[in-house]
Amino acid sequence: MGDLPHPDLRPLASTTCVVTGGLGFIGSNLTRRLVEAGATVRVVDALVPTHGGDRHNLEGVDADVLVADLGDPAVAEALDGVDVVFNVAGQVSHVASMTEPLRDLDLNVRSHLAFLESVRRVAPGVTVVQTSTRQVYGRPDHTPVDERHPARPVDVNGIDKLACEQLHLLYGSVHGLRVTALRLTNVYGPRQSLAHDDLGFLPVFVRRALEGGTITLYGDGSQRRDCLHVDDVCRGLARAATTEAAAGEVVNLGSDQDHTLAEIAALLVEAAGGAASVTTVPWPPERQRIDIGDFRTDATKARERLGWQPCVPLAEGLASTIDFYRSDPWYLSST
Is 286 exposed, middle or buried (CB count within 10 Å of its CB: 0-12, 13-18, 19+)? Predict the structure, then answer.
């Protein structure tokens, strides 16, 4: 965590990169790291309402920004002469995918297929790193979960994310693109939207800790999750783009340590000064039906193939995340 380029990003200096979803949480952090490392970055973002993308995330950053759907013909121009494509765009709400399944299909599959067609035509042979999700595994048979675990998504979002991932790999094998799909665990850190309750539990916990409110846990709060700081994700994306052994592979990015949601909430309350409280409530039926239970990632393949492992301890990462939002009140005022 810092302003100097990390060694994992330095090999991308002097390259031209496209970052889709680059005005959102992971995409904006990646764009900043790439620019710091000396890359030329072109951002494509549809600025879909409620998805967390905002120009504020890239204020002061020297990157070209195109506001367009991935399937827009204008996107092809942004792909001309590109070296690496980081496809980070997507709809992430599991609840929204169940209430608006056709919209999720459009955002997470159709638009990406149209984008892959543009990539195939305009940038043949380019390196593509796509962000998938651990949600594709569904309810795990065992933990930790490695890439050989069956993919059995429990919601529409997981199914669409799996389809998107497989389309990327198909285009890699059939059309000569160098594709790697990274299945991300729960990601947290700066520039994550705090405005919406269905973009993951971590930003909700962060907002309520900052406001001195109540962090609500479903059930008894004993569900276990592993969490990954966005800086570690950016390093993983860069390693995937610059490591030949990653081509054609699906790779988990996650922590080797998991915590209960109650423990994560307590760490955030402490980091924010202790004014917030934690309570438990019964599971809402619509959420319990798509909950996956305990989850911990096996990231052995990332260590072996990418030379990557997480560096930011959870307590340190959560404390720095709280500090970031306090230093930029826009994120709370925008809620």
Answer: exposed
The total number of residues written for the chain in this structure:
335
Of 199, 227, 209, 178, nearest to 275 (Cα)? Answer: 209
In the block, tokens 């490591």 appear at: 243
Instruction: Name the one residue in this structure whose structure tokens are 């860069």.
Output: 238
CA 90, distance to chain mean position in Å, is: 9
Rounded to the nearest angstrom, the gap between the alpha carbon of residue 234 and the centroid of all alpha carbons in its chain is: 9
Bond prior to 310 in cis (omega within 30° of 0):
no
If you write DSSP's letter for every residue of 136-154 in order, what string do you get?
A: GGBS-SSSSB-TTS--B-S
The distance from CA 155 to its chain's CA centroid, rounded to whole angstroms, is: 18
Six-digit token string for 255: 């922590």
- Cα separation of the two ends of the chain: 25
Q: Which two tokens stand for residue 273?
A: 């000064």
Task: Tell me the DSSP string of 23-63.
Answer: TSHHHHHHHHHHHHHT-EEEEEE---TTS---GGGGTT---
CB 332 within 8 A of CB 216: no
Distances (CA, A) of 152 to 128, 264, 269, 274: 25, 26, 34, 39
CA dist 204 and 287 (Å) reads 15
Say which CATH superfamily domain 10-192+229-256+293-312 falls into: NAD(P)-binding Rossmann-like Domain (3.40.50.720)
What is the pLDDT tens value at each position of the chain, 335 positions in all?
555 678 999 999 999 999 999 999 999 999 999 999 999 999 999 999 888 899 999 999 999 999 999 999 999 999 999 999 999 999 998 889 999 999 999 999 999 999 999 999 999 999 999 999 999 999 999 999 999 999 999 999 999 999 999 999 999 999 999 999 999 999 999 999 998 777 789 999 999 999 999 999 999 999 999 999 999 999 999 999 999 999 999 999 999 899 999 999 999 999 999 999 999 999 988 888 888 899 999 999 999 999 999 999 999 999 999 999 999 989 988 75
φ/ψ (deg, to 5) at 317: -65, -40
